[in-house]
Amino acid sequence: MPRLEIKGLSRSFAGKEAVRDVALAVDAGQVTCLLGASGCGKSTTLRMIAGVEAIDAGDILLDGRSIAALPPEARGIGLMFQDFALFPHLSVGDNVAYGLKHRRTAKARVEALLGRVGLASYMDKYPHELSGGEQQRVALARAIAPKPAVMLMDEPFSGLDERLRDEVRDHTLAVLREEGTAIILVTHDPMEAMRMADEITLMREGRIVQQGAPYTIFNAPGDLETARFFSDLNVISGVVEGGLISTPFGPFLAPGRQEGETVDIAVRPQHVGVDFHRARGAPRPSDDEGEVAEGTVRRARFLGQLSEVEFDVAGQSIKTTLPGVFLPPEGRVFHLRIPRRHCHLFSR
Predict the structure, then answer these.
(1) Which residues span the domain enclosing 266?
(2) Distance between CA atoms of 24 and 6, rounded to whole angstroms?
(3) Which residue from 193, 219, 220, 251 lies 20 to 30 Å from 95 (Cα-Cα)?
(4) pLDDT band at 280 (very low <50, low <70, confident <90, very high)
Protein backbone atom coordinates (compact mmCIF):
# COMPACT_ATOMS: atom_id res chain seq x y z
CA MET A 1 0.00 0.00 0.00
CA PRO A 2 1.47 3.42 -0.92
CA ARG A 3 1.89 5.95 1.85
CA LEU A 4 0.03 8.58 -0.19
CA GLU A 5 -2.34 7.95 -3.09
CA ILE A 6 -4.11 10.55 -5.21
CA LYS A 7 -7.11 9.51 -7.30
CA GLY A 8 -8.67 11.64 -10.04
CA LEU A 9 -7.94 15.01 -8.41
CA SER A 10 -9.56 17.93 -10.27
CA ARG A 11 -10.00 21.65 -9.66
CA SER A 12 -11.51 24.48 -11.72
CA PHE A 13 -11.48 28.27 -11.28
CA ALA A 14 -14.16 30.39 -12.95
CA GLY A 15 -15.02 27.49 -15.22
CA LYS A 16 -11.43 26.91 -16.33
CA GLU A 17 -9.75 23.61 -15.42
CA ALA A 18 -6.56 24.17 -13.42
CA VAL A 19 -6.07 20.49 -12.53
CA ARG A 20 -7.73 17.58 -14.29
CA ASP A 21 -7.85 13.94 -13.22
CA VAL A 22 -4.44 13.83 -11.50
CA ALA A 23 -3.51 10.42 -10.08
CA LEU A 24 -0.27 9.33 -8.44
CA ALA A 25 1.06 7.17 -5.60
CA VAL A 26 4.07 7.79 -3.34
CA ASP A 27 5.69 5.21 -1.07
CA ALA A 28 7.34 5.88 2.29
CA GLY A 29 10.82 7.34 1.72
CA GLN A 30 10.11 8.02 -1.96
CA VAL A 31 10.65 11.40 -3.63
CA THR A 32 8.15 12.28 -6.36
CA CYS A 33 8.63 15.55 -8.24
CA LEU A 34 5.68 17.40 -9.72
CA LEU A 35 7.41 19.03 -12.67
CA GLY A 36 6.17 21.51 -15.21
CA ALA A 37 6.16 25.09 -16.45
CA SER A 38 4.50 27.88 -14.49
CA GLY A 39 0.72 27.58 -14.57
CA CYS A 40 0.65 23.85 -15.32
CA GLY A 41 -1.28 23.02 -12.12
CA LYS A 42 1.48 21.53 -9.97
CA SER A 43 1.20 24.01 -7.07
CA THR A 44 -2.60 23.79 -7.11
CA THR A 45 -2.26 20.00 -6.84
CA LEU A 46 0.09 20.43 -3.88
CA ARG A 47 -2.33 22.79 -2.12
CA MET A 48 -5.20 20.35 -2.59
CA ILE A 49 -3.15 17.56 -1.01
CA ALA A 50 -2.28 19.89 1.88
CA GLY A 51 -5.93 20.78 2.38
CA VAL A 52 -5.58 24.51 1.81
CA GLU A 53 -7.33 24.31 -1.57
CA ALA A 54 -10.74 22.73 -2.11
CA ILE A 55 -11.12 19.83 -4.54
CA ASP A 56 -13.88 19.49 -7.11
CA ALA A 57 -13.45 15.76 -7.67
CA GLY A 58 -11.21 12.92 -6.64
CA ASP A 59 -9.81 11.54 -3.40
CA ILE A 60 -6.65 11.68 -1.28
CA LEU A 61 -5.64 8.58 0.66
CA LEU A 62 -3.06 8.36 3.44
CA ASP A 63 -2.11 4.75 4.23
CA GLY A 64 -5.35 3.70 2.54
CA ARG A 65 -7.58 6.08 4.52
CA SER A 66 -9.32 9.02 2.85
CA ILE A 67 -8.23 12.38 4.25
CA ALA A 68 -9.88 14.61 1.60
CA ALA A 69 -12.53 15.82 4.07
CA LEU A 70 -10.11 16.51 6.92
CA PRO A 71 -8.79 20.00 7.77
CA PRO A 72 -5.09 20.64 7.04
CA GLU A 73 -3.97 20.24 10.65
CA ALA A 74 -5.55 16.79 10.92
CA ARG A 75 -3.97 15.28 7.79
CA GLY A 76 -0.52 14.35 9.11
CA ILE A 77 1.14 16.27 6.28
CA GLY A 78 4.11 18.63 6.58
CA LEU A 79 4.80 21.67 4.42
CA MET A 80 8.02 23.40 3.35
CA PHE A 81 8.15 26.53 1.22
CA GLN A 82 10.96 28.54 -0.34
CA ASP A 83 10.53 31.49 2.07
CA PHE A 84 11.11 29.17 5.09
CA ALA A 85 8.27 30.96 7.02
CA LEU A 86 10.14 30.98 10.35
CA PHE A 87 8.70 33.05 13.18
CA PRO A 88 11.15 35.96 13.61
CA HIS A 89 10.23 36.57 17.27
CA LEU A 90 10.87 32.94 18.31
CA SER A 91 14.23 31.33 18.94
CA VAL A 92 15.42 28.45 16.78
CA GLY A 93 14.40 25.98 19.51
CA ASP A 94 10.94 27.49 19.85
CA ASN A 95 10.47 27.53 16.08
CA VAL A 96 11.22 23.81 15.87
CA ALA A 97 9.01 23.04 18.87
CA TYR A 98 6.07 25.10 17.57
CA GLY A 99 4.06 22.19 16.16
CA LEU A 100 4.71 19.77 19.00
CA LYS A 101 1.80 19.08 21.33
CA HIS A 102 3.57 17.34 24.20
CA ARG A 103 5.80 19.95 25.77
CA ARG A 104 7.42 17.49 28.19
CA THR A 105 9.00 15.53 25.36
CA ALA A 106 9.42 18.48 23.01
CA LYS A 107 12.85 19.56 24.27
CA ALA A 108 14.41 16.16 23.66
CA ARG A 109 12.86 15.99 20.16
CA VAL A 110 14.05 19.50 19.30
CA GLU A 111 17.59 18.80 20.50
CA ALA A 112 17.72 15.56 18.52
CA LEU A 113 16.49 17.23 15.32
CA LEU A 114 18.83 20.21 15.56
CA GLY A 115 21.67 17.75 15.99
CA ARG A 116 20.61 15.88 12.86
CA VAL A 117 20.59 19.04 10.77
CA GLY A 118 23.94 20.20 12.17
CA LEU A 119 22.61 23.03 14.33
CA ALA A 120 22.91 21.56 17.82
CA SER A 121 24.37 24.77 19.26
CA TYR A 122 21.79 27.07 17.67
CA MET A 123 18.93 26.44 20.13
CA ASP A 124 18.84 30.02 21.48
CA LYS A 125 19.64 31.92 18.28
CA TYR A 126 17.01 33.80 16.28
CA PRO A 127 16.23 33.52 12.53
CA HIS A 128 17.81 36.88 11.65
CA GLU A 129 21.14 35.60 13.01
CA LEU A 130 21.21 32.67 10.57
CA SER A 131 22.32 32.30 6.96
CA GLY A 132 19.85 31.20 4.27
CA GLY A 133 21.11 27.63 4.42
CA GLU A 134 20.83 27.56 8.21
CA GLN A 135 17.28 28.94 8.07
CA GLN A 136 16.38 26.22 5.59
CA ARG A 137 17.67 23.54 7.96
CA VAL A 138 15.67 25.03 10.85
CA ALA A 139 12.58 24.99 8.61
CA LEU A 140 13.27 21.32 7.85
CA ALA A 141 13.63 20.46 11.56
CA ARG A 142 10.36 22.26 12.35
CA ALA A 143 8.52 20.55 9.49
CA ILE A 144 9.54 17.02 10.52
CA ALA A 145 9.24 17.57 14.30
CA PRO A 146 5.62 16.29 14.42
CA LYS A 147 6.70 13.23 12.36
CA PRO A 148 4.45 13.83 9.33
CA ALA A 149 3.74 10.85 7.11
CA VAL A 150 4.02 13.06 4.01
CA MET A 151 6.12 16.14 3.27
CA LEU A 152 5.01 18.61 0.61
CA MET A 153 7.72 20.94 -0.69
CA ASP A 154 7.04 23.88 -3.02
CA GLU A 155 10.36 24.88 -4.65
CA PRO A 156 12.02 24.99 -1.22
CA PHE A 157 15.58 25.40 -2.51
CA SER A 158 15.09 28.08 -5.18
CA GLY A 159 15.95 30.91 -2.77
CA LEU A 160 19.42 29.51 -2.06
CA ASP A 161 22.50 30.35 -4.09
CA GLU A 162 23.72 27.62 -6.43
CA ARG A 163 26.81 26.78 -4.36
CA LEU A 164 24.71 26.07 -1.26
CA ARG A 165 21.70 24.54 -2.99
CA ASP A 166 23.12 21.08 -3.68
CA GLU A 167 24.42 20.64 -0.13
CA VAL A 168 21.17 21.71 1.58
CA ARG A 169 19.00 19.76 -0.86
CA ASP A 170 20.93 16.51 -0.44
CA HIS A 171 20.97 16.83 3.35
CA THR A 172 17.24 17.64 3.49
CA LEU A 173 16.22 14.65 1.40
CA ALA A 174 18.54 12.33 3.34
CA VAL A 175 16.90 13.33 6.64
CA LEU A 176 13.40 12.93 5.22
CA ARG A 177 14.21 9.49 3.80
CA GLU A 178 15.61 8.40 7.17
CA GLU A 179 12.30 9.43 8.73
CA GLY A 180 10.43 7.27 6.20
CA THR A 181 8.52 10.30 4.94
CA ALA A 182 6.80 10.24 1.55
CA ILE A 183 7.90 13.38 -0.31
CA ILE A 184 6.17 15.36 -3.04
CA LEU A 185 8.29 18.20 -4.35
CA VAL A 186 7.17 20.86 -6.81
CA THR A 187 9.72 22.33 -9.21
CA HIS A 188 9.83 23.93 -12.65
CA ASP A 189 13.49 22.95 -13.13
CA PRO A 190 13.93 19.62 -14.96
CA MET A 191 17.57 19.27 -13.85
CA GLU A 192 16.59 19.70 -10.20
CA ALA A 193 13.90 17.04 -10.66
CA MET A 194 16.44 14.70 -12.28
CA ARG A 195 18.82 15.13 -9.33
CA MET A 196 16.23 14.57 -6.60
CA ALA A 197 13.39 12.41 -7.79
CA ASP A 198 12.79 8.69 -7.62
CA GLU A 199 9.83 9.39 -9.90
CA ILE A 200 8.91 12.42 -11.99
CA THR A 201 5.31 13.39 -12.70
CA LEU A 202 5.34 15.82 -15.63
CA MET A 203 2.32 18.14 -15.84
CA ARG A 204 1.08 20.32 -18.68
CA GLU A 205 -2.11 22.41 -18.76
CA GLY A 206 -3.43 20.80 -15.58
CA ARG A 207 -2.91 17.20 -16.65
CA ILE A 208 -0.23 14.57 -16.18
CA VAL A 209 1.44 13.91 -19.54
CA GLN A 210 4.09 11.41 -18.40
CA GLN A 211 5.21 9.64 -15.23
CA GLY A 212 8.28 7.54 -14.57
CA ALA A 213 11.85 7.36 -13.33
CA PRO A 214 14.08 10.25 -14.44
CA TYR A 215 16.09 7.95 -16.72
CA THR A 216 12.94 6.70 -18.43
CA ILE A 217 11.39 10.10 -19.09
CA PHE A 218 14.66 11.58 -20.32
CA ASN A 219 15.46 8.70 -22.67
CA ALA A 220 11.91 7.82 -23.74
CA PRO A 221 9.96 11.11 -23.88
CA GLY A 222 6.32 10.70 -24.81
CA ASP A 223 6.18 13.64 -27.20
CA LEU A 224 8.31 16.38 -28.69
CA GLU A 225 7.30 18.97 -26.07
CA THR A 226 8.42 16.64 -23.28
CA ALA A 227 11.76 16.05 -24.96
CA ARG A 228 12.25 19.81 -25.40
CA PHE A 229 11.40 20.45 -21.75
CA PHE A 230 14.36 18.38 -20.57
CA SER A 231 17.08 19.60 -22.95
CA ASP A 232 17.97 21.49 -26.11
CA LEU A 233 17.05 19.63 -29.28
CA ASN A 234 17.82 19.59 -32.95
CA VAL A 235 14.60 18.85 -34.86
CA ILE A 236 14.62 17.69 -38.48
CA SER A 237 11.24 17.30 -40.17
CA GLY A 238 10.38 15.10 -43.09
CA VAL A 239 7.57 13.29 -44.89
CA VAL A 240 7.25 9.50 -44.92
CA GLU A 241 7.71 8.11 -48.42
CA GLY A 242 8.02 4.37 -48.93
CA GLY A 243 8.55 3.83 -45.19
CA LEU A 244 11.50 6.25 -45.09
CA ILE A 245 12.12 9.89 -44.17
CA SER A 246 14.68 11.67 -46.35
CA THR A 247 17.07 14.05 -44.53
CA PRO A 248 20.49 15.64 -45.13
CA PHE A 249 21.83 12.86 -42.88
CA GLY A 250 20.44 10.14 -45.09
CA PRO A 251 17.15 8.21 -44.85
CA PHE A 252 15.52 7.35 -41.53
CA LEU A 253 13.27 4.34 -41.04
CA ALA A 254 9.72 5.32 -40.05
CA PRO A 255 8.12 2.21 -38.51
CA GLY A 256 4.43 2.50 -37.78
CA ARG A 257 4.05 5.82 -39.61
CA GLN A 258 1.59 6.41 -42.40
CA GLU A 259 2.60 7.21 -45.96
CA GLY A 260 2.66 10.99 -46.44
CA GLU A 261 2.78 11.69 -42.69
CA THR A 262 5.02 14.50 -41.41
CA VAL A 263 7.43 13.32 -38.72
CA ASP A 264 9.82 15.27 -36.48
CA ILE A 265 13.21 13.65 -35.82
CA ALA A 266 14.71 14.96 -32.56
CA VAL A 267 18.33 14.54 -31.45
CA ARG A 268 20.16 16.23 -28.58
CA PRO A 269 23.24 18.35 -29.38
CA GLN A 270 25.60 16.02 -27.50
CA HIS A 271 24.65 13.21 -29.86
CA VAL A 272 25.53 15.05 -33.07
CA GLY A 273 28.98 13.78 -34.01
CA VAL A 274 31.68 15.75 -35.80
CA ASP A 275 33.53 13.50 -38.25
CA PHE A 276 37.07 14.80 -37.87
CA HIS A 277 38.48 12.09 -40.15
CA ARG A 278 36.55 13.39 -43.13
CA ALA A 279 37.23 16.99 -42.12
CA ARG A 280 40.96 16.27 -42.45
CA GLY A 281 40.47 14.90 -45.93
CA ALA A 282 40.50 11.16 -45.14
CA PRO A 283 37.01 10.07 -46.24
CA ARG A 284 35.52 6.84 -45.01
CA PRO A 285 32.33 5.05 -46.09
CA SER A 286 28.99 5.53 -44.39
CA ASP A 287 28.11 3.05 -41.67
CA ASP A 288 25.23 2.32 -39.35
CA GLU A 289 25.80 5.71 -37.71
CA GLY A 290 24.02 7.23 -40.70
CA GLU A 291 25.32 9.20 -43.63
CA VAL A 292 27.48 12.29 -43.22
CA ALA A 293 26.14 15.77 -43.93
CA GLU A 294 28.17 18.89 -44.59
CA GLY A 295 27.85 21.52 -41.89
CA THR A 296 29.19 25.08 -42.14
CA VAL A 297 30.11 26.72 -38.84
CA ARG A 298 27.80 29.60 -37.96
CA ARG A 299 29.24 30.28 -34.50
CA ALA A 300 31.10 28.57 -31.66
CA ARG A 301 30.98 29.29 -27.94
CA PHE A 302 32.96 28.00 -24.98
CA LEU A 303 30.63 27.21 -22.05
CA GLY A 304 33.10 26.11 -19.38
CA GLN A 305 33.31 22.33 -19.45
CA LEU A 306 32.16 22.06 -23.06
CA SER A 307 31.88 23.95 -26.31
CA GLU A 308 28.72 24.53 -28.35
CA VAL A 309 29.01 24.81 -32.11
CA GLU A 310 26.14 25.80 -34.40
CA PHE A 311 26.26 24.59 -38.00
CA ASP A 312 24.27 25.35 -41.11
CA VAL A 313 23.18 22.06 -42.68
CA ALA A 314 21.18 22.52 -45.88
CA GLY A 315 19.79 25.81 -44.55
CA GLN A 316 18.89 24.44 -41.11
CA SER A 317 20.59 25.15 -37.80
CA ILE A 318 22.14 22.05 -36.18
CA LYS A 319 23.92 22.36 -32.82
CA THR A 320 26.48 20.05 -31.25
CA THR A 321 28.27 20.11 -27.91
CA LEU A 322 31.77 18.74 -27.38
CA PRO A 323 33.86 18.44 -24.21
CA GLY A 324 36.69 20.90 -23.72
CA VAL A 325 37.63 23.76 -26.04
CA PHE A 326 36.54 23.47 -29.70
CA LEU A 327 36.12 26.88 -31.36
CA PRO A 328 36.38 26.50 -35.16
CA PRO A 329 36.16 29.71 -37.22
CA GLU A 330 32.92 30.81 -38.88
CA GLY A 331 32.54 29.37 -42.36
CA ARG A 332 34.66 26.27 -41.84
CA VAL A 333 33.06 23.07 -43.16
CA PHE A 334 32.85 19.84 -41.18
CA HIS A 335 31.09 16.55 -41.78
CA LEU A 336 28.43 15.65 -39.21
CA ARG A 337 26.73 12.40 -38.25
CA ILE A 338 23.59 11.57 -36.29
CA PRO A 339 23.53 8.08 -34.73
CA ARG A 340 20.08 6.59 -35.22
CA ARG A 341 20.06 5.04 -31.75
CA HIS A 342 20.00 8.51 -30.16
CA CYS A 343 17.09 9.84 -32.23
CA HIS A 344 13.43 10.15 -31.24
CA LEU A 345 10.67 10.22 -33.86
CA PHE A 346 7.43 12.07 -33.16
CA SER A 347 4.38 12.27 -35.37
CA ARG A 348 3.09 15.77 -36.02
Answers:
(1) 232-347
(2) 5
(3) 193
(4) very low
